[in-house]
Amino acid sequence: MLFSDTKLNIYGLNGTVSTRWDKRINELVSGIKSRGLKLHFISISIGFAGSLLSSDVHLTTGYPIRNQEVKVVNNKLQAITSSNFINGGFENFSDNVPANWGFQDTPGDLTFIDNQIKRSGNASFRAEAKGDQNSRILTAFDVKPFHQYTLKCWIKTENLTAANVLALIRDNNKDRNLTNLRLSTPKPDGDGRRYFNRPNSLSLDWTEVRIAFNSLNATSVNLALAVFGGQNGTI
């Protein structure tokens, strides 16, 4: 018999889990043995180690950060920009084509430059969801190896329904994902995050989202802002 319980992750780390749990697990073991069966415990379920990390956050995997320069701002350490991200605000554009960005579709079909609805500056980028199609805008920029980066952007949606909305960041040289996290924001009560998995008629006012990634040994990365399986609405 295989037995799995997230409490097995922390059993023995800080004493026992609880008197009640100890009693029940002993009853389970005795019952299995009395039937002549073998018991195998499944400990540390990969991907579901919340109880382990709640016991000791230092048990999580850490990405290496090497030679990243920082400065002190208001008594806090702040990383010094080390990438050449260009035209992140879509200010430089011609018709519906922002400079330094590429497309999966034809600009003006699902993707547009919008100089009416914008949070700041002269323009924003708009993707329309329709026809169960994918819309994706892409750019590439240089990074330094083993540096930690945070992508910050502001999004606004109106009745957005799609299979998925996310930012993809890939190592240009090794063709591997550095992150493909779904867009999320902190929950209003501060307990965890709200992920936009399969957004259904999602309407948001201008909201900041952040996605962190480690460059590992990449020197150039590709960023794609993507709407997959768009049904209706805009972002």
CATH architecture of the largest domain: Sandwich
What's the CATH topology label of the largest domain? Jelly Rolls
In spatial order, strands of the major sheet run: 7-10-17-12-13
Helix content: under 10%
Q: Which shape, going by the Cα principal axes?
A: elongated
The H-and-E topology, N to C, reads as: EHEHEEEEEEEEEEEEEEEE
Task: Outline the low-pLDDT stretches.
Answer: none
Number of helices: 2
Give the overall pLDDT as a whole number.
Answer: 87
Largest sheet: 5 strands, antiparallel
Which features would summarize this protein structure in a list?
mainly beta, 5-stranded antiparallel β-sheet, 41% strand, 2 helices, Jelly Rolls, 235 residues
Structure description:
It is a single chain. The chain is mostly beta strands and 235 residues long. It has two domains: 2-59, no CATH class; 93-234, Galactose-binding domain-like (Jelly Rolls, Sandwich). Helices cover 9% and strands 41% of the residues. It has helices at residues 19-34, 50-55; strands at residues 2-4, 40-42, 70-73, 76-79, 93-94, 97-98, 102-103, 111-114, 124-127, 133-142, 148-161, 164-171, 176-179, 184-186, 193-195, 202-214, 220-230, 232-234. The strands form seven sheets. Strands 7-10-17-12-13 form a five-stranded antiparallel sheet, with no helix packed on it. Strands 16-11-18 form a three-stranded antiparallel sheet, with no helix packed on it. It has a two-stranded parallel sheet with strand order 1-2. The radius of gyration is 23 Å and the shape is elongated. It starts with a strand and ends with a strand. The model has no long low-confidence stretch (mean pLDDT 87).
